[in-house]
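If you are new to this repository, start here. Below is one unmodified record pulled from the training split, so you can see the exact layout before writing a loader.
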Amino acid sequence: MARVRRGLALRGPGTEAVKYPGGKARVMPTQEVTMTSATYKPAGAAGRHAEGRGYGLVIFAAVMLAVIGFFNLLDGIAAIANSHIFIGNAHYVVGDLRAWGWVMTIFGAVQLLAAAGVFMGNQLARWFAVAVVGLNAIAQMFFIPAYPFWSLLIIAADIVALWGLCAYGSRENIQAAS
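And here is the target side for that same chain:
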């Protein structure tokens, strides 16, 4: 605190002299506030990621999406052709092996298109990929009677791809990395 001599306050930067009734004066610290018109985003704010960070994870998710799409395409073609790699006499909740083969073939083709859109940085393709990956995880649950371990592996890969697309795929991160 600054000292007061003969009615004058000796102040430093960031202080202000205040006179009280009875002739006493005190030096009080002050705080300056700078007003800006731009939005301020503090670095490291809770729940936010640094711009451009995680772009590699989005690319990883797009690669995972392409791999899953390719595997689903092959899986569907094999199921349509009644290949012998699937468990025989499996009971399905809805349809038969050929029906689920067509579903997996269509999901595989759509996932490959979504992966191409995510590689190009299209936000609509990213959200479309999130929907397709989520639906594929659900569809793989119905495919478990035909190929249990493979379906569980694809579901796990879907979860990893879904996390990569959702966690770091914001528009700011993708534009900052470009």
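Two things worth knowing about this chain: Helices lie at 55-80, 97-119, 123-143, 148-167, 171-177. Residues 1-31 form one domain.
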